[in-house]
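Work through this protein:
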Amino acid sequence: MFRLQPPLPDDYSTATADELVRRVAAAKSRLGKRLVILGHHYQREEVIRFADMRGDSFGLSRFAAEQDEAEYVVFCGVHFMAESADILTGPDQKVILPDLNAGCSMADMADLDGVEQIWAELAEVTDIQAIVPITYMNSAASLKAFVGRSSGAVCTSSNARSILTWALGRGRKVLFFPDQHLGRNTGFQLGYQACDMQVVDPHHRLGGLQDREVKEATLLLWKGHCSVHQRFSTGHIEAFRAAHRDGIVIVHPECSHAVVEAADEVGSTDYIIGAVAAAPAGSSIAVGTEIHLVDRLAREHPDKTVVSLDPLVCPCSTMFRIDLPHLAWVLDGLVEGEVRNRIVVDDETAKDARVALERMLAIA
């Protein structure tokens, strides 16, 4: 999805790190309780140090909604996260994304036009009332609204099993988007086999499937993925185990099924954080997730060796866009009475998306 972030004024782009730290700290002090800064786990250390709360996307959005005194919510994350915060916060709260170009490649792999087109094509060959649409939290507000209108729900990586169990109790099939890997790994957890799942490629009619394949499948998995988590391979696991015979491999369920099968532990970002904390002192741990979190875990657990599963580390390029210059720029704007980079979800979309989110909470 194309977004346009204007270039920053020179005094932000050329300022030293120390100058920017002072500006951010001063603005935060002046705004006081009117401001809350949210930091996703994958953010740079220079940014997350200023976060009033760190966490995953949905947890941060719910936290923001509880901050009654906060007029401004600065979300250091990506676009779909700021949208969710705007949906859940009150009408008097303004949600701000420091860099509008901080998107999510996975979320952008499924858009409303594409999903509606596939939905219409599925209706031509099977009973559409028997298909329950489920969207991962990592998706645009418009897709959350679509599942809200279509008797579906949102899921997170920690509750995907509960949500899919609910969905398959209501219908015979699930259309799961945008991450095929989370859908596939959850399907295997529930006892389904590869033959029960089909990948839907939105660039082809009916997802590139034959009518028979649609009718026989239980899980229709959108052809999307996380560019970071898809990098991890079984070769990385083999290399780590060769160097660390008693090492522990922990990966995120957005990784491929082969990687998930070969790992010792699998779970959401919060699960990974807890698993590293619970590991015995002296453990060697390879973590298959975004490098900023891995590095933070290594610093917070000096009694353990914590490394990235992929030695050629790759940060989330869109998360990486949130930096001190952009954070200082939006905060200075607030001090001056100017709200920069506000994220607003229209009322109709927000209403339907809130239905899907609340349905998830009721289920999980």
Remarks:
- The chain has three domains: 10-103+318-346, 107-226, 229-308.
